[in-house]
Design brief:
Helix content is 25%, strand content 28%. The protein has 749 residues and is α+β, with helices and mostly antiparallel strands. The strands form twelve sheets. Strands 3, 4, 5, 6, 7, 8, 9, 10 and 11 form a nine-stranded mixed β-sheet that branches. Mean pLDDT is 83; it is low at 1-23, 229-237 and 634-664.
């Protein structure tokens, strides 16, 4: 990406440059940022320059100038894990005056001892007013409890309390709410306020997280902790006779599989919303064949398959990746937002660490129960999300939470049956259609038709700002990435996506969820995380990465994340740069869209290079110095990764065949450069080699080697000349039918 040029122009024009969530306050910070970050990076999605070797432990100290942080900004390490690709991920929480800043989470991704990428949210130079005196915790808790519609608190349930102590191996553990003072921003753009945060866990599925103003007791924010599906009606999946592992208890057998790493246990909730009234399902001869037992066996089998899917496909042992016991409550009751009991739901309750499945209120009928294979997989995935990104169950993060569950519910179905129908709960009457979200009035385009606004208060009256509706956007992204498709989205943009298969797509989704997303992530973060996950798994210049970007483009998640995967050209910025006589170069991995009127040529070229399409919309006009390239993998990325792809490149209407790209190194620094440029390259075997510098018009301006034979090994040459015009150049090396290139920018002598 070549955004350095327009950043420089903005700086020269006396304006601040913005890096998504971070304003570059002065030229010193701008220079530090450019030394740290690859072009196209933002604070929310940072790629560190390859020549920098910064360890995670030194990142926040060494990079203060670039990040804009000051001495009072504190970052505490929350957790560290090393994945199966050998990358180590460090998740940090930002604090101010000893209090956590809600949503300010930043993850450093270290590879071979250096931070390669980072993402999340940092609030540089954070400052907020602390009230003269905070409300006492116990008094704040009493106000919080008054907001909860139920009094069935888990800390009053001796059985649940004992189970918690055993699960945590801590005799002091309790569900009794422990308050935490945090900095909270209730509406984007408003000041942060000090708030008491309480997790209030109940026995009937009405657990909530409550935030109260630390000075006034007033409610600032609330969201549910128990995650539910939407109620509906239909038929239940049955998979014939299956072999199941049970345990003997007295003279009977119960639905407890203690033969696996995690125990899997299904109870009869007896239509209650509380676990206190649950009993065991029993059978005398271990042949569970009666109609009354079928629903319980279905839940038991589906939970087993959900665990098996994540274990066999993602190497994950139970929902917590630590072998946690899997407890399911069948024929469960639920209390709705209106206080009325119902049995038409399924849920994961993180406080109790249990799964619940309703029987639709029709005892004796098993064909409408809420335990189809994909619904059970859906709830199991909620538990995975709780233990990974922990996406807040409201607005965009809540929609992603629901979508990941739909995605992995379908994958559990595929794992079990060998096929997938893209319908959530199809066998009992589907509630969402991932291949055609509009079929159930869900959006398939970000902020398009059927999108529920996330701008106002999110509560039970609007499904927490449409978490079950807006999930359709990522659902459709996953469908397109898996199976492919073409069409026109709600923005009027035509798209074509080549499917990479649901297994590859699920691996991308899982890595995004488990590595790159956090509790406050939205659709922009999901796009960044998915593409970065695809890069990790398949390589920077792989078809999987390109299709992942195209699928996000198809569902309307364009350039709002500030990344160079899709670019909507900022015409005023382009005009300013062009008037100043600077070359203007944009490099998008996927699409570039422009409706600019480019002034007649003043000697400075305007160049667009995209991996998929350059879309010149009505209103576009240019002089004779406009260049457009279509490169399935833009030059600098291709040369770095060496995919071996070939493609056609078009410039001013002329097409030439691009040579195969090889992975041998070709580096040039500094870039941008002035009068001196050091070039390093490697020759894998003796043979003729050409190395030259080409300007934006395709003319050679300097040649180091012209079909000369060089010995095998590393080589270095120096360019030291004045008078070369400022602008965009390509460093090109050819040898034995192979091609390497680097884009360079000349900015002065």
């Amino acid at each position: 990406m070549k955004k350095w040029i327009f950043l420089l122009a903005l700086c020269a024009a006396g304006q601040n440059a913005a890096v998504y969530g971070q304003t570059l306050r002065d030229s010193t910070q701008l220079q530090a940022w450019n030394r740290l970050a690859k072009p196209g990076s933002t604070l929310r999605g940072l790629k560190v320059r390859d020549e920098l070797k910064i360890a995670a432990r030194d990142f926040f100290t060494d990079c203060k100038a670039a990040l804009g942080t000051v001495a009072r900004d504190e970052f505490r390490l929350l957790r560290t894990n090393t994945d199966d690709l050998g990358m180590t991920h460090y998740r940090y929480q930002q604090y101010y005056r000893g209090y956590r800043i809600e949503g300010a989470l930043y993850t450093l991704h270290e590879q071979q001892g250096r931070v390669a990428t980072a993402n999340g949210r940092i609030l540089p130079a954070f400052k907020a007013e602390e009230p003269p005196a905070a409300v006492a915790e116990e008094k704040a808790l009493q106000y919080a409890l008054e907001l909860i519609s139920t009094k069935n608190y888990l800390w009053l349930d001796k059985k649940a309390e004992e189970a918690l102590k055993e699960r945590t191996q801590n005799r002091e553990a309790s569900f009794y709410p422990k308050g935490e003072l945090v900095w909270l921003q209730t509406v984007a753009g408003e000041e942060f306020r000090l708030a008491w945060k309480f997790d209030i866990n109940t026995a009937d599925g009405l657990s909530e997280c409550i935030y109260l103003d630390a000075a006034t007791y007033g409610l600032l924010k609330r969201y549910p902790l128990d995650i539910h599906c939407d109620p509906g009606s239909g038929t239940t999946t049955w998979h014939g006779t299956q072999t199941i592992n049970t345990s003997q208890s007295g003279s009977n057998f119960i639905l407890l599989d203690d033969c696996q790493a995690p125990n899997i246990h299904v109870f009869n909730a007896q239509d209650s919303s509380s676990t206190a009234f649950s009993t065991e399902y029993t059978d005398a001869d271990n042949n569970w064949t009666t109609m009354a037992q079928q629903s319980a066996v279905q839940t038991f089998f589906s939970l087993t398959q959900s665990w098996q899917y994540f274990l066999n496909r993602h190497g994950r042992d139970s929902y917590d990746n630590g072998g946690a016991t899997i407890n399911g409550y069948n024929q469960a009751g639920f209390i709705g937002n209106n206080g009325v009991r119902n049995w038409s739901n399924a849920s994961w309750s993180p406080g109790l660490q249990i799964f619940r499945f309703g029987d639709n209120g029709t005892d004796g009928t098993v064909t409408d129960d809420w335990n189809t294979i994909d619904i059970v997989g859906h709830e199991f995935a909620h538990a995975v999300t709780t233990n990974e990104a922990d996406l807040v169950y409201a607005a965009e993060s809540g929609a992603l939470n629901e979508s990941f569950s739909d995605i992995f519910g379908e994958m559990v179905e595929l794992f079990t049956t060998g096929s997938q129908d893209w319908l959530v709960g199809a066998n009992r009457g589907y509630i969402r259609n991932m291949s055609n979200p509009g079929d159930r009035n869900d959006p398939d385009t970000y902020q398009g038709t059927n999108w529920v606004s996330t701008a106002g208060t999110c509560d039970g009256t609007n499904d927490q700002c449409g978490v079950h509706t807006n999930s359709g956007v990522q659902n459709f992204w996953f469908y397109l990435l898996s199976d492919g498709g073409s069409g026109i989205n709600d923005n009027g943009d035509f798209y074509t996506v080549q499917g990479i298969g649901s297994t590859n797509a699920a691996n991308i989704a899982y890595r995004s969820l488990s590595v790159y997303l956090n509790s406050g992530s939205g659709y922009a973060d999901a796009k960044w995380g998915a593409i970065q996950a695809a890069i990790d798994l398949f390589g920077d210049c792989s078809n999987e990465v390109l299709q992942c970007a195209r699928a996000w483009n198809a569902v309307g998640v364009y350039s709002a994340d500030g990344l160079g995967y899709d670019i909507e050209v900022d015409c005023p910025v382009q005009d300013l740069v062009h008037v100043l006589g600077f070359p203007y170069f944009l490099d998008a991995f996927n699409d570039i869209r422009s409706d600019c009127e480019i002034a007649p040529s003043n000697g400075a070229p305007v160049v667009y290079e995209a991996g998929h399409a350059v879309l010149l919309k009505p209103g576009f006009a240019s002089g004779d110095n406009f260049h457009a390239y279509i490169d399935p993998c833009p030059g600098s990325v291709m040369a770095a990764m060496g995919s071996g792809n070939t493609g056609d490149r078009t410039q001013n209407g002329q097409t030439s065949k691009q040579l195969p790209v090889n992975s041998v190194g070709l580096e040039a620094f500094p870039n941008p450069f002035r009068s001196k440029l050091r070039i390093q390259f490697e020759v894998p075997a003796p043979g003729p080699l050409s190395l030259r510098l080409i300007n934006a018009y395709g003319h050679t301006v300097h040649t180091w080697y012209d079909n000369e034979t060089l010995p095998e090994g590393e080589h270095s040459v120096l360019y030291a000349h004045t008078g070369l015009p400022n602008g965009l150049y390509t460093l090109e090396m050819r040898s034995a039918g192979k091609y390497w290139s680097r884009k360079l920018v000349k900015v002065g002598d």
